[in-house]
C-alpha cells in the first residue's frame, strides 16, 4: 500500500518553508515527516514533490498549530516545541540520539559538535554528529542551528550561514568581531542534558 503525503507551506522572513505530513492511523493527529528550509530561488513546492511524489497540498488543524509555532518562533517568540509529532523513525539510531540531544539545547545557548559527541559517549565522532545534524529533517523544531564548530565559528546549516547566524542572534546569542560565537553562550561542561 502506498503512503499518502500532504504538505503545507508558510512564508517567513527567510523565504517559503514547507512541512510534509502524513496521517497516522494509530494516533489522532498527523505526523510530520519533514520540514523544508528555503533554498534560494528554488520553489519549495517543487522540492517537496521531488522528495515526496504525489504529495497533496492540504491543511490540517494540528499541522496548522505546528506551523503557527514555527511562525511565532521565526518572529522571535520563545516557543516550546515537542518531538511527539515528529516521525523520528525515519532516522537511524545514531541520528536519533544526536537529534534528541540537540533538541535539549536551550534557547540562547550553543554546543560544539565535539562536545555533543562527548555527551553521546563518542568523543571522536564530531564529524558524524555534524553529518547527523546536516541531515536533520526537522529544522526549527530540532534546533540544529545551535551546534557550532569547536573554534566557535558557525560550521554549516541547510538554510545557509546567514540564516543560522540570524536565528542565533534572534535567540540572544552574540558574536565577537571575528564572527565567532561568544564563549558565554556555550553550554557549560557540567550542564546536564540527557543523551
Task: Write a brief caption for the model.
The chain has helices at residues 44-51, 61-74, 93-103, 113-119, 126-134, 161-170, and strands at residues 6-12, 15-22, 31-36, 56-57, 111-112, 147-148. It is of the alpha/beta class and 195 residues long.
Q: Roughly how many Å is the radius of gyration? A: 17 Å
Distance between the termini: 36 Å
> What strand line-up does the widest sheet have?
3-2-1-4
Helix/strand structural class: alpha/beta
| Total beta-strand segments | 6
Helix content: 25-40%
Contiguous low-pLDDT stretches (5 residues minimum) are none
Given the structure, what is the number of helices? 6
Oligomer: single chain
Strand content range: 5-15%
Instruction: Tell me the overall shape.
Output: globular
Mean pLDDT across all residues, rounded?
91
Description:
This protein has six helices and six strands; from the N terminus they run βββαβααβααβα. The chain is of the alpha/beta class. The strands form two sheets. It has a four-stranded mixed sheet with strand order 3-2-1-4, sandwiched between helices. The chain has a two-stranded parallel ribbon with strand order 5-6. The longest helix has 14 residues, at 61-74. The mean pLDDT is 91.
Question: Topology, please?
Answer:
Blueprint: E1 6-12, E2 15-22, E3 31-36, H1 44-51, E4 56-57, H2 61-74, H3 93-103, E5 111-112, H4 113-119, H5 126-134, E6 147-148, H6 161-170
Parallel strand pairs: 1-4, 5-6
Antiparallel strand pairs: 1-2, 2-3
Amino acid at each position: 500500500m502506498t503512503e499518502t503525503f500532504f504538505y503545507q507551506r508558510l512564508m517567513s522572513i527567510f523565504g517559503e518553508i514547507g512541512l510534509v505530513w502524513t496521517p497516522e492511523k494509530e494516533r489522532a493527529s498527523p505526523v510530520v515527516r519533514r520540514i523544508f528550509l528555503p533554498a534560494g530561488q528554488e520553489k519549495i513546492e517543487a522540492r517537496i514533490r521531488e522528495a515526496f511524489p504525489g504529495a497533496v497540498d492540504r491543511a490540517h488543524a494540528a499541522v496548522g498549530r505546528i506551523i503557527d509555532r514555527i511562525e511565532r518562533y521565526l518572529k522571535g517568540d520563545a516557543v516550546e516545541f515537542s518531538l511527539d509529532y515528529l516521525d523520528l523513525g525515519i532516522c537511524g539510531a545514531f541520528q536519533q540520539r544526536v537529534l534528541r540531544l540537540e533538541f535539549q539545547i536551550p534557547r540562547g545557548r550553543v554546543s560544539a559538535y565535539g562536545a555533543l559527541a562527548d555527551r553521546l559517549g563518542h568523543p571522536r565522532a564530531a564529524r558524524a554528529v555534524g553529518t547527523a545534524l546536516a541531515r536533520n529533517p526537522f529544522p526549527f523544531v530540532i534546533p540544529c542551528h545551535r551546534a557550532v564548530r569547536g573554534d566557535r565559528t558557525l560550521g554549516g546549516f541547510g538554510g545557509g550561514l546567514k540564516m543560522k547566524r540570524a536565528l542565533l542572534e534572534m535567540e540572544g546569542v552574540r558574536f565577537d568581531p571575528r564572527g565567532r560565537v561568544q564563549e558565554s553562550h556555550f553550554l557549560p561542561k557540567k550542564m546536564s542534558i540527557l543523551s
